[in-house]
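Q: What does the assembled structure look like for these inputs?
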Amino acid sequence: MTDRPIKVLIAKPGLDGHDRGAKVLARGLRDEGFEVVYTGLRQTPEMIATAALQEDVDVVGLSILSGAHMTLLPRITKLLRDSGLEDVLVTAGGIIPDVDVTALAEVGVARVFGPGTTIAEVADYLRTNARPRD
Amino acid sequence: MAEPAATTGGPAARAHDLVLAARDGDRRSLARLLTAVENRTPLAEPALREMYPLAGAAHVVGITGPPGAGKSTLVAALIGEVRKAGRAVAVVAVDPSSPITGGALLGDRVRMQSYAGDRDVFIRSMAARGHAGGLASTTGAATAVLDAAGFDLILVETVGTGQSEVEVAAAADTTVVLEAPEMGDEVQAIKAGLLEVADLVVVNKGDKPGAQRTAAQLRAMLVAGGGPKVGGDPSQARPRPKRPEVLITTAATGEGVPELLVALDRHRSSSATGPTDSARLARADALVWAIVAERLRERLRAPDQSDATRVTLAAVADHRLDPYAAADALLAVLGSGSASPARD
Ligand SMILES: Nc1nc2c(ncn2[C@@H]2O[C@H](COP(=O)(O)OP(=O)(O)O)[C@@H](O)[C@H]2O)c(=O)[nH]1
Ligand SMILES: [Mg+2]
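A:
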């Protein structure tokens, strides 16, 4: 069935204690017709990989503000690959410098959404790029 | 895609590979099978045909109640308790879909994060989606898959407001209805409906004032409510040994949770009586009727039949044919294998 909703995991790795942005995105994507699994604050890479695997999501969206993106995001993409989830689309949102965006692309973060990205833009990107499904 | 073995064969071969791997403990394959049954992909039928006969051993527990009562928190606390005993536990957490966009926000995992490293805990969120009668059959198929994969206890969390969600909980071997003390009088109406499906009633948030009073009120209501409802359509309501026990828990601290697990196990052993068990009949009913309906739709839309179906539907749309006559005509055509349209 091709018309089933795209399933997205929205997770917030790292230790900072604000998840307003992630929640707004989760609700916004729901309103755009996505099935959004929201896992909340302070996710370890292991928690994120486990959730992505058990939920069989099409997309993992990582919201990160803490500045620890260069340590956390590559660990998450590695864990996803090790779990056989290399076909899952991984995106990130947050304030990430351009040099890092390039480095992150190399480890499997397909797209970084900077501040000011609208939910409609994210939704369009996911609809176009989410992994092909059965 | 790194699934060379899985992508070479047809759906049956691919399903077979996934089933073998899932039975062997591969969680990724299990997750993919759950997706297949949830989305009714071509893998769903061969996978369920193989797995259903292997299922039937698990205890399926439905947990329902109003939003915010603490269902997810209680599920997390139950997982901890069950793991102390070394049993494998799976969760199916259902949240409503938006009828307008089809989207859903599945937030129950937030409270169940501490088990990421434990392979004997498997948590899956599911959107209720739209299709009538579909949720009960999808949930029934998902629990069969988890059951066949070796999970001994399967907890199904649903919101106790929508009718179909309540039916899903009621099709579990044991149904727990959760209430919270501070919810006041407005809940009386919800309670009356919800309590009918309860095998166990739990007042959660035992740390809040009023928990004892709420439990006492519920006990009084349940005594006044009287005996079992008998007869009727098994998909609508099932007769239960009434007078559900009323327990108090504080899911946030774990207080009362060991006692709840004991009560669940007791209910399991008192009601696990084989093929005529009414909860299992209700689940079978949902599964089979959904497939019958799907098969009928498929045949009526098959190339050799779809024109005739369209003509019949058009006749109903123009009020030249009443819908009962149309339904009978379509069924008769299927029965005779002929593809002539209903006469108007
Ligand atoms: N005080 C108190 N709060 C609780 C307890 N159990 C859950 N909660 C809180 O109730 C809210 C809703 O809990 P949740 O498990 O998401 O409820 P659900 O919607 O029924 O799944 C959360 O803020 C929980 O922290 C409890 O035993 N005591
Ligand atoms: Mg919940």
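Residues 7-126 of chain A form a domain with the Rossmann fold fold (CATH 3.40.50.280).
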